[in-house]
């Protein structure tokens, strides 16, 4: 079971949209040096929906190779076609990923039974540990708690990234699954501290791209039940959490990485570079979080 701050890694790109492999390697090493507890490669923040299959595969393989077993690597393997999700999870297993993150099939809006059968098929295709990912604001489909409870009975389905931001709903998941080998991760940075204080196991974080040590320290304090320290660190991070959602993820975080010298000004259409009117807001949040000097 993975715990702590797992970064939803952005994929550095050049100005023409090509993947910047040198910058990707530098960014992975930045996380290894700054206490990130695990890396999600080619998850939502990594822009896999604009990648070819070959690029998606290559990003996962490159992150696994650079990490070289030092921290867990969780491969983003979600797709809106079950056959594609199966192909991705098999590849992630072949190249040595430690687990996979599988988002609910987007756009085609399956029923709860369809979601169950989709994830069951993915789980049966590989023995790689699978973390479910529910983000209805992006996918147009919601994985209900009752369906999660059914899926938690499948041996290699080991966790859920809950990006709903609904703490009451998360508390029900944590309470119902207590004592089982099943982890609940926050996928919503603004509410992640409270979810972990309530018994969650970690956060799959956008903010960790630019504030890895802060997110690690906050997560460890919250998981340990140290309310005062967790809230103290979280208060410093909250402006960052808010500003990185000021436009669609990963637009703000890629701008922030560029300001920090960790990536070029590169993103793929239909996403565009951060609107100039938001530059000062994100820059101020980076200063408050202590990751960019005034």
TrEMBL record:
The protein's Enzyme Commission number: 4.3.3.7
Keywords: Amino-acid biosynthesis, Cytoplasm, Diaminopimelate biosynthesis, Lyase, Lysine biosynthesis, Schiff base
Task performed by this protein: Catalyzes the condensation of (S)-aspartate-beta-semialdehyde [(S)-ASA] and pyruvate to 4-hydroxy-tetrahydrodipicolinate (HTPA).
Major subcellular location class: cytoplasm
Official protein name in the record: 4-hydroxy-tetrahydrodipicolinate synthase
CDD domains on file: DHDPS
Lineage: Bacteria, Pseudomonadati, Pseudomonadota, Gammaproteobacteria, Oceanospirillales
Source organism, top-level taxon: Bacteria
